[in-house]
Design brief:
With about 450 residues, this protein is α/β, with parallel strands linked by helices. Helices cover about 45% and strands about 10% of the residues. α14 packs across α17. The chain binds glutamic acid.
Length: about 450
């Protein structure tokens, strides 16, 4: 690979839809490659398709790249460069490399501009795929513009890559069949030939290529809404079809820039493994401070803020419990939707059958909860998980752990599944814990 010349890469998306994760990966590889060699990274909006291109999609793309920290050194918009393309179409016509012709048998009156194919063999060494040879004869005299004002992709991409001095074209493997046409045009225009690296497509974890029908293929910003942190998504995407060659799995952008090597990108596509993304995200969540994590989950608690026992002290106490179980925001959302956190904020309903431990009786449960009431109400000192456990443990052992601990836990949470009773006591505090055990006793005695 020639790294003597100035390294310039580009990402050239067509803004015809929201920016998807496939685009993120191509951008990332272009970015890492350019930064690794101290080169430049260009973003070019290929918005020549007037019907399908939308400014809001371009904005979505730029916002996504900004969120992910993939900043560019220059930005261009093809719709503003029509005059430039016109000049180059004219050059091709003047030099005999292109000509106006009838479009097709179906539309004989509409003329187009065709490239005069020299019918040669094109060879290039792809940085990922190795030596590639194409016989261009079968391409015929292909269309490069509908008219002087309306160039098509092959022409605009070559003119821009040439004028912007792009040294390396890193793009998805779906573009490999475009490369011979583009090399023919660039040679006719006398531009230097860039180097090419066609990046393997991302594979679906269910086999085959990842496609729009796969649930993983969503606009990158939806991952943000799901609570995926930008460095986690970057880290994850970098490792699809590439790795640093050692056992590191968590790498910052700076570390990736340092070691990224396009020659080490695997020929076969790597799979998009969502569990891996969630695991990586968890590693980055672990780096957040307590307050940062509270801010991270805060938007999901807007409704619970009006619940009877909601307080910021309660939030402080339950944040570590939530944090332990969180890989991304959907986990927190599920805890809320399933009512798993409700008992921290509202008095739970008590089922007077379920509160009785399987080996115990209603009468026994009443005795044990009354004892618990006595122990907890006479407790002084700081109520922590350990001190709550120390206070109750002897009695629990004496009467059988389940006989005491199950009904306490149930009185406090109203649920079969919840944290252990000591964690609940420490979290809810002495007053609320006592109120709830009293309430459970009332329900038990009623039945
Ligand atoms: N505009 C093209 C696309 O969105 C990409 C062009 C290229 O990378 O050469 O697929």
């Amino acid at each position: 690979m020639n790294t003597e010349k100035k390294i310039i890469t580009r990402m050239a998306p067509s803004p015809t839809g929201k920016f998807h994760i496939g685009g993120v990966r191509s951008t990332l590889f272009n970015y890492l490659f350019a930064r690794h060699y101290g080169g430049q990274f260009i973003v070019r909006s290929e918005d020549t398709d007037k019907e399908r291109s939308k400014p809001e999609y371009e904005k979505n793309m730029l916002d996504t790249l900004q969120w992910l920290g993939l900043e560019h050194d220059a930005f261009y918009r093809q719709s503003e460069r029509t005059e430039i393309y016109k000049e180059y179409i004219q050059k091709l016509i003047d030099s005999g490399h292109a000509y106006a012709a009838e479009a097709s048998n179906e539309n004989p009156n509409m003329s187009v501009i065709r490239f005069k194919n020299p019918n040669t063999k094109i060879k290039f060494t792809d940085l990922i795929l190795g030596d590639i040879e194409f016989d261009t004869t079968e391409l015929g005299d292909f269309v490069i513009a509908r008219n002087m004002e309306t160039p098509i992709y092959h022409l605009t991409v070559v003119v821009d890559d040439g004028l912007m001095e792009v040294s390396h074209i890193l793009r998805g493997q779906e573009h490999i069949n475009n490369t011979p046409r583009q090399i023919l045009i660039l040679e006719a225009l006398g531009f230097d030939r860039p180097e090419y690296a066609h990046i393997p497509l991302i594979m679906s974890p269910r086999g085959g290529k990842l496609s729009k029908r796969d649930p993983e293929v969503i606009p990158a910003f939806e991952y943000k809404d799901q609570g995926i942190l930008a460095p986690a998504l970057i880290n994850f995407m970098a490792f699809i079809g590439w790795n640093p060659g050692d056992d590191r799995e968590i790498m910052s952008m700076a570390e990736l820039v340092e070691v990224f090597d396009i020659n080490k990108v695997q020929k076969g596509g790597g799979a998009f493994n969502i569990e891996k993304l969630h695991w990586i995200n968890k590693q980055y969540l672990n780096l957040l401070s307590e307050n940062e994590f509270k801010d991270y989950i805060d938007p999901l608690f807007s409704e619970l803020k009006s619940a009877p026992f909601y307080s910021s002290e309660m939030m402080d106490k339950i944040t570590p419990i939530i944090r332990e179980r969180t890989q991304h925001l959907l986990d927190v959302q599920n805890m809320i939707t399933d009512g798993e956190l409700d008992y921290y904020f509202v008095q739970p309903e008590i089922d007077s059958e379920k509160i009785v431990w399987k080996n115990d009786t209603r009468e026994g449960t009443i005795v044990h909860l009354e004892k618990a009431l006595e122990i907890i109400s006479s407790f002084d000192g700081e109520l922590t998980v350990a001190s709550a456990k120390a206070a109750l443990w002897d009695y629990a052992e004496e009467v059988g752990k389940g006989n005491l601990l199950w009904p306490i836990r149930f009185a406090l949470s109203g649920r079969d599944k919840s944290p252990d009773p000591f964690t609940l006591i420490a979290t809810l505090g002495q007053t609320i814990s006592l109120q709830r055990i009293e309430y459970a006793l009332v329900e038990l005695k009623k039945a």
